[in-house]
Amino acid sequence: MDYCYIKIEKELKKRNFKGNRCMNNRGLKYDTGDKDILKWIKRKLIAYKLGFNITPQVIDIHPVANICNLKCAWCIGKSDSNTPVYMKWHDLEKVFNSIFEVGKEEFWPSEIHFCGCNSDPLLNKEVMKNAIQYLNERNVTIEIISNGVCLKDYISNNIEQLLLVDKISISLDVVNEQDFYSYKSLNSKICLKDIINSIEKICQNKYKTNSQLSIYTTFVATPETYSKEEWLQNFTELKNIGVNHVQVRNDYTNYDKNFYNKVKLDIEEIAIKLNAKEINYKESNSFDIKYNEYMPRNSEFEHCLGYRIWPTISADFLMYPCAHTANEYFVSLLDLKKTNYYDIYSLDDFSYYEKEPCKNCSKKCPSLIYYINQLKDIDVL
């Protein structure tokens, strides 16, 4: 397996990429001077297009499956199964030991994201507690994607663990209690205000301890739930309590494009009112608002590069090309309890897995995987 980076560096220089190959505390990386993962992924993609074998830059982990504490209308991973599946830490530790193998630091993923297609990762307290400590000791960027319900328990019992995390992304989706109950919760005991209160307490502890944790919140724009005045009020509150990033998404729905254009203009106006700027990863108190542009979700690609760039490990330790395919409806690449992580990426016939489309895959890719799969030439980078 040829991991020579000399040719890649020359190609990077030709394309005016700034950033040198350097040794840092995560091993051999392209140092871009910030935490912009997209820049790192672009460099790896160039290497792949030049014929080099590459390993993923980011890996999603789904520590829980088939159980959740909310019933979100826009969840991409609803399952027909009622049997909960929980990862066990001793099994995940073995997988982590193969991924973060000593001597292969330059090929480690730089980020691990804990998320769930039909679950919340914070439900698995055993895995989250140990995994945060394990990854923090190896200086790997940690992101948790959560609906926020379990934050209250962690604040009471494991706030120190949460403050070791780099990013927590909380899917609020809506801005009032009525919509929260209608589109997310079937339990009146769980309310939106409690989640926002938890976010505020985390922010307060973050500033007290000088933690570098960034708090993200995401919302889904639909005609039924969108109100410019309410959203401005909510975003103002989130900024005041210490949230760093607000993201408005429309890629879960299929409404009229005129609606999306209106929301986009409104969000731009709200961002100006709140003095939102580009997020600064070096400052824990920066604040920005982003609106996801609408784009067609069906990709027109021959080979999927999800395995190479951003694969997903499910609760039963099967690996899939992306978060959207990490359930029983699709065929996985490998079983990480039986196969070593680097063994599969060293196979000469690995391209077989990229040429064979996922069973039942409709090619409705996550945003970044969509972007990568659509690229036709490395010069467009």
What does this structure look like?
With 381 residues, the protein is α/β, with parallel strands linked by helices. It has two domains: 1-146 and 302-381, TIM Barrel (Alpha-Beta Barrel); 162-250 and 252-294, Transcription Regulator spoIIAA, CATH 3.30.750. 35% of the residues lie in helices and 15% in strands. It has 14 helices and 14 strands. The strands form three sheets. Strands 11-10-9-8-7-6-3-12-13-14 form a ten-stranded mixed sheet. The protein is globular and about 55 Å long.
* Class computed from helices, strands and strand pairing: alpha/beta
The amount of helix comes to 25-40%
Radius of gyration: 20 Å
> What is the CATH level 1 assignment of the largest domain?
Alpha Beta
**Outline, from the CA principal axes?**
globular
Strand content: 5-15%
SS element count, helices:
14
> Using DSSP, what is the number of strands?
14
Counted up, domains total 2
- Measured between the Cα atoms of the first and last residue, the distance is 25 Å
